Amino acid sequence: MKITILILIGALTLNTSFAQENMEANFSFPVLEGPYMGQEPPGLIAEPFAPGIISKEGWEIEGMFAPGMKEFYFTTRKAKGTPITVIGFRMENNVWSKYTEFKRIGEISFSPDGSRMHMAEGYKDRMDDGWSERKSLGSMFDREDWGIMRLTASEKGTYVFDDYKSGDVIRMSRLNDGTRQAPEIMGPIVNTGEWTAHPFIAPDESYLIWDSEREGGYGDSDLYISFRQEDGSWGKAINMGDKVNSDKWDAFASVTSDGKYILFNRRIDDGSDDNNMDVDIYWVDAQIIEALRPQE
Questions:
Q1: How far apart are CA 261 and CA 145, in angstroms?
Q2: Cα–Cα distance between 6 and 9 in angstroms, integer?
Q3: What is the Cα 181 distance to its own chain's centre?
Q4: I want to staple 116 with a disulfide (CB 3.0 to 4.6 A). Which of 24, 69, 111, 240 is the partner?
């Protein structure tokens, strides 16, 4: 079941091609006004994001607000065998409306300043009112023997990304005096268990969130967090708890650029049919991060 999810949601579509760049998904949206796509913010127990609007039957995944909180993106498809697309909304005059849709080639994330959209081993840069064509990060990352699903970046330019072709590991690449360093596999604090994937590094590198299936978890992949220590090392992996995790697949966390909320994916069906999955976007108050931070 997990292999199907990871390939379907993160990897196999990297080589998907179809005739038209922009595809219309089977979605219609009401008028949405105000911050956070007009949604009432959650508390300390995770709940669906925009139920019946964004999170609905089928699968809607990878929800992210771009820095500035005036754009929201998520990934979806109409039905099995149809193209996977990213839909983007923009808020103007306090009203949200769909402004872009493009094929998904790698799971998206954003540089902390919002100028770059990362897409696995590729990226798009902001241009005028939209985004450039997808470009490659170069041979250091664009390798046939690696399977990058998600890459996130810190304010210092550190890249953290997963690699499903190398046994589901997470790697890190730093900038040193402006020179990109070769990626290194992170240690067992992060790379323990199965299906380790979808890392999110805090803009200031103070913590790292990822998902993995580990002993002592809640039954499937859970979200874990590790905090940066004073000596630069990573602290122990902390399960983010039953207010975030469930007995189902919980994965792909990101924290909004205002630092207030965590968005992530959750599979909500019974897991009996991997060809007809129901996956929604959930969110929860990011105060839970500080509640989990070890006290000195």
A1: 35
A2: 5
A3: 23
A4: 111
What is the CA angle 67-70-71, rounded to 5?
Answer: 80
Nearest C-alpha neighbor of 225 from the set 212, 215, 268 = 212
Pairwise CA distance, residues 37 & 69, whole Å:
9
Q: What are the pLDDT digits (tens) for 131-162?
A: 999 999 999 999 999 999 999 999 999 999 99
Q: Please give the C-alpha separations between residue 274 and each of 52, 167, 270, in angstroms, as whole numbers.
A: 22, 21, 10
Reference 250, options 240, 235, 261; nearest CA is 240
Question: Do residues 253 and 208 touch, judged by C-beta distance below 8 A?
Answer: no
In this structure, the dihedral spanned by the alpha carbons of residues 14, 65, 257 and 114, taken in order and rounded to 10 degrees, is: 60
The amino acid sitting at 267 is: R
pTM: 0.91
